[in-house]
Design goal:
The complex is a heterodimer of chains A (157) and B (137). Chain A has helices at residues 3-6, 12-32, 40-44, 58-84, 96-113, 117-126, 130-152. Chain A has 157 residues and is an all-alpha fold. Chain A has a domain at 92-157. The longest helix of chain A has 27 residues, at 58-84. Chain B has one domain. In chain B, helix 1 (3-22) crosses helix 5 (102-111) and helix 5 (102-111) runs antiparallel to helix 6 (116-133). The chains are: A mainly alpha (157), B mainly alpha (137). Chains A and B meet through helix 2, helix 3, helix 4, helix 5 and helix 6 of A and helix 1, helix 2, helix 3, helix 4 and helix 5 of B.
Chain lengths: 157, 137
């Protein structure tokens, strides 16, 4: 098997990066007992600006502080990677409308689903949660179909 | 939450963000390259992260009574299956269009991948619309 045909950029940085991500999610659990997906942050920040009870649930309000800190850590870790460790980062050329509309749909979907690539993908699958495993299969499938359609119609890929 | 525990949350998030950057996941092109079957690296990232987390989630609660800086291990909150799967279907459409999911969207701000702010902004608005207009409670 010619691995370079399916991993043209190599495999090591993907595996090492994945293990670092796993180390972060694992340390969160070992040190605090929390399970950290990223998408809840999109809801908990709204508890600061709206009085709507659908946002201000007790779990959203009680978890918002650590979710803020977790999100800050995500940005800070990336900052350290690029600025101090010199990791290469190319500014995206995906069109703003693709990013904005895609983001809007993503925000809607992950809140309805209560999880995203990290919540269902990493945490849920690590728990062998059937619904999370099904969710991953569903969002991978639809994303693959949509990305192929965008490519077919000339979008950035 | 105690300050010492919040510090662990920060460290965890930093490892997560560093890993996303190391794995080039803060670049939507790399994600779209996977979704278009040109480079399967994303599966190595997801596989590596999930395998390590699986071992820790399964083993640690059996050998330790409590986390280091808290009183108990939590679980993921339950959600109706129909909501979970319909949400996943919708999320997949957005992800396939942009190549950006929530974790990398946040990390991209730190990485300086500024156009991804369009995606992050969209996500905040999308989550608000879902909660405000399409959520019973």
């Amino acid at each position: 098997m010619d691995w370079s045909s399916i991993f043209p950029m190599g495999m090591a940085h993907y595996l090492i990066g994945g293990l670092l991500i796993g180390a972060g999610v694992s340390w969160l659990f070992v040190s605090t007992g929390l399970m950290g997906g990223a998408s809840s942050f999109l809801t908990t920040v709204w508890t600061y600006v709206t009085k709507d009870e659908r946002f201000n649930t007790s779990s959203n309000v009680s978890s918002r502080t650590w979710r803020n800190v977790y999100a800050l850590g995500l940005a800070l870790g990336a900052l350290i990677g690029v600025r101090m460790l010199g990791l290469e980062m190319n500014v995206t050329e995906v069109s703003p409308w693709q990013l904005a509309i895609g983001g809007l749909i993503t925000g809607f979907g992950v809140r309805l689903s209560s999880g995203c690539t990290s919540g269902h993908g990493i945490c849920g699958m690590a728990l062998l949660d059937l619904d999370s495993i099904l969710a991953v299969l569903v969002f991978l499938s639809t994303a693959i179909v949509v990305a192929h359609l965008v490519t077919a119609f000339g979008g950035v890929a | 939450m105690k300050p010492i525990a919040l510090l662990q949350v920060l460290i965890s998030g930093m490892l997560f963000g560093l890993g996303l950057t190391y794995a080039t996941m803060v670049q939507p092109e790399v994600v779209l390259s996977f979704l278009n079957f040109n480079d399967f690296g994303l599966l190595l990232v997801l596989g590596g992260a999930t395998t390590l987390t699986f071992v820790v989630y399964q083993l640690v609660p059996r050998i330790a009574k409590a986390p280091l800086f808290a009183t108990k291990f939590s679980t993921r909150p339950a959600n109706e299956r129909s909501r979970t799967l319909l949400g996943a279907l919708i999320f997949g459409v957005g992800w396939g269009l942009s190549g950006v999911c929530p974790g990398p969207a946040i990390a991209s701000v730190g990485a300086g991948n500024w156009p991804v702010l369009y995606a992050l902004g969209g996500m905040f608005v999308g989550a608000y619309i879902q909660g405000r207009f399409f959520s019973a409670k």
